[in-house]
Amino acid sequence: MTSTAITALHRGRAVDPGQVLTGPLCGVGLCWLEPGDSIELAADGVEHTVYVTAGAGLAGTDDIDVPLAEGTAVTLPLGGRATLFAGEAGLEYFHAVLAVPAVPQEGAS
After folding, report:
1. Which residue ranges make up each domain of the chain?
2. Closest C-alpha among 10, 51, 33, 31 to residue 87
């Protein structure tokens, strides 16, 4: 027999999917940035995927700023950094975090 788990993702609530799923997905949540607020994402040992569900803003790195609007998705690969900036109406986004297994470096024992 299988069991079913239903979790409501409300703004600001993160969920550990490892309790019901296997694989690299280690965190999901619906997040909200107030107008003018920002948050830095660092892909140290993980990758980030963000899907904008409402509002607008920017995803910025040292090299480029990318406009964010409802329906826009951004993936931050391993080792990357970006800052999400909320626009005048704020920014709501679904955030998924995926674990990346460590790869032994050549010559390491």
Report:
1. 24-95
2. 33
